[in-house]
Amino acid sequence: DTEVTQTPKHLVMGMTNKKSLKCEQHMGHRAMYWYKQKAKKPPELMFVYSYEKLSINESVPSRFSPECPNSSLLNLHLHALQPEDSALYLCASSQRLAGGDMGGANVLTFGAGSRLTVL
Amino acid sequence: KNQVEQSPQSLIILEGKNCTLQCNYTVSPFSNLRWYKQDTGRGPVSLTIMTFSENTKSNGRYTATLDADTKQSSLHITASQLSDSASYICVVSGPYGQNFVFGPGTRLSVLP
Fold first, then answer.
1. I want to staple A103 with a disulfide (CB 3.0 to 4.6 A). Which of A42, A81, A114, B51 is the partner?
2. Which mean pLDDT values do the consecutive 10-residue runs of chain B (112 residues) have?
3. Does any CB of chain A come closer than 8 Å to the CB of residue B97?
């Protein structure tokens, strides 16, 4: 199994709603990531978990709340979002954090994305 | 500052033609470099990954090159197909524990 699965594929929510994006991988990867991507832009890093612990938080507003219940699952809880938060949210995983001595073995594998629209 | 630049920003070619995309990086120390293909509205898919000691790597019609001395990589696509229309993103991995550094991408359009 070499996939990262994201659900839902599409989500429409109002600014007062609470929703969650979910991500799952069974490749034994110990680093998991949330990226936000606007149209015609590269992905922007939001959060990184390493061994189920939050490793990097790129100054993301508190209306986005990540959670890593176990080594295979990564959630992104959404509350009181703004219309400008509408974007493609990508989950990714890798064997370990970037770099180190793993050379070419440490590949960043992405999910298909969750398209979020905030009304 | 760790940065990745890509050129051209966009490219239009006719079906069957070849093209080459460029990636320059300043990430140091360098661990590896990957090229991803991203269809609109979908997650990026890895095409090739290259380490410091590799100069060329092929994946079907895709051939990536790496010059670690000049910190440049290229992605050559031969006999382009309509399905090659996508964004191609260069991602460099540097020091352990740091982020993967993304380039801005090249938008390729293949026309019939």
1. B51
2. 92 98 90 92 90 88 94 97 97 75 95 96
3. yes
> To the nearest 10°, the Cα dihedral for A114, A71, B95, B52?
-80
Residues of A in contact with B52 (CB under 8 A): 103
Q: Chain B residue with minimal CA distance to A33?
A: B99
Give the strand pairing for A114-118 and A10-13. Answer: parallel
Report the alpha-carbon angle B82-B88-B94, nearest 5: 160
What Cα–Cα distance (Å) separates residue A39 from each residue in A99, B11, B77, B110, B111? 28, 17, 24, 19, 21
Q: Compute the C-alpha angle A54/B95/B105, nearest 5°.
A: 85
| pLDDT of the residue at B1 | 74
If 0-12 CB within 10 Å is exposed, 13-18 middle and 19+ buried, where does residue A25 land? buried
* Residue A104 reports pLDDT greater than 80: no
